[in-house]
Write a structure and sequence with these properties.
Blueprint (H helix, E strand, L loop, with lengths): L1 E4 L8 E7 L11 H9 L9 E4 L5 E8 L6 H17 L4 E4 L12 H16 L17 E4 L6 H26 L7 H12 L4 E6 L1 H6 L3 H7 L7 E8 L6 E5 L1 E5 L19 H16 L4 E11 L11 E3 L5 E3 L7 H14 L4 E6 L4 H6 L4 E4 L3 H14 L3 E3 L4 H6 L7 E2 L8 H10 L8 E5 L24 H9 L4
Parallel strand pairs: 1-6, 2-4, 2-5, 5-6, 9-11, 9-14, 10-11, 13-17, 14-18, 15-16
Antiparallel strand pairs: 3-4, 7-8, 8-11, 12-13, 15-18
The structure holds ligand BES and zinc ion (2 copies).
Amino acid sequence: MKISIQKKNKFQKTQVVFMFQKSFPKELKKQKEIESFIKDIGFKGSKKESFFIPSKSKNLLIIGLGEKKFFDYEKIRKIAAFSYKELKKQKQKTADILINSLLSESTQNLPQICQAFTEGVLLTSHSCKEFKSEKSKEFVVKELFLCLDSKDHKSCLKTMREGTILAESVNFARNLGNYPGNCMTPSILAKSIQNKTKNTKIKTTVWDKKRIEKEKMGGLLGVSLGSLQEPRFIIMEYKGSNKKPVILVGKGLTFDSGGISLKPSQNMDEMKFDMCGSVTVVGAMLAIEKLGLKVNVIGLVPSSENMPGAGANKPGDILKARNGKTMEVLNTDAEGRLILADALSYASEKKPQAIFDAATLTGAILVSLGNLFTGFFTKNENLVQRIEKASQKTGERVWRLPLVKEHTKDIKSILADVANISSTKGAGSSTAAAFLEHFVDKQIPWVHFDIAGTAWNVHNRLEYCSAKQASGVMIRTFVELVRSYES
Ligand code: BES
Ligand code: ZN
Ligand code: ZN
């Protein structure tokens, strides 16, 4: 799937135009017969209303946008998704898009419209089909052409390129997320990252089990002991500036069975998505490098399986993290925090400007926020503003949840420094964040994002993501966050 600017006089057979509620698009004003036709059929321009008008010389697909006053760039991504699906339904391989018909008071910036449309279409066209033995015969839309005045070409080309980089990085990361546990082990994840970053400015280093042991990463090593698969610790370095780094950390649990505290079998297959935090980091690193952001960035991925093999952690076991703190494993299913403990300790040693982590950490976040919002936790008020700004730009919704000293008290252990589950009921996502906080240097601004509700498209909620597949959530927001450190 490709998206480009329409070349002069090289029109496609099909044209797509958008119409706000009860306001006929001025792009079609010269075509009186269409205006009266649209009136006759009662087309109102309501949200997701569409009509395909075929004709010998030219087809027209008209798509409703709903009310003008509630319009924004995220709605454009969603409209792009809808347009793509409608064109597919109508079996149109190519089409011209009258992109100016998306201009409104709240969406005045044409380059930004083009970027949002590009992202929406490319994110929608992705779906993981690698495991089907027969090649798909599904109809595919091949190329869309945005119709623009020549004076807008340069600025829009730039943002369309940016949108393409972002969407392609997300789609690559989604594929890693979609692979089942037998095809995506810690060593395969590490190899995939090494291959993908080979000819880029990202330097990837992979630590094996021996090195992890030597580096005193007792959490990562401990969690991996119940599995035949060895753990990996993956370091990606991109030096876009000489300043202190911004560090991104992602949970890379390639399969979480729960370990000895085994999970129930219903929906356990979804635990192949437990490495979606790591794909957030990989996707963001790839996009940051391609965009050439002037920031020093390090991506860290602790990766392991969580299995109930003979060597597995037993409830009550005590592990020692890299920063020397001891962790009592009261529930082996709360393993994400154990491997993140080492990664966050290592990140803190680098004295970064900030640390952002993404993890499918708790089922509790699904209870509080469902699959609409990613929950985040921080004690740094400045970072809250940065996050809200970034999320507004990307349309990825976030919601701040509390992290206070009482949560820290809840995870006290009798024998060790900290217990991996709370001693009280409720607030499971906050107590998980309080656990992670033990491993971050107090001086370093840090945010934890719990993506357990948003990392895959559970109920087909996200228009530009295939159902039951990895969503690639927070990649674009992480890129924006890193961009905010450019000086
Ligand atoms: N990977 C899970 C969290 C999860 C649950 C992600 C459901 C997506 C959907 C994590 O390792 C886990 O099992 N957490 C436990 C923690 C509990 C034992 C304190 C949970 O949320 O149940
Ligand atoms: Zn678990
Ligand atoms: Zn997990």
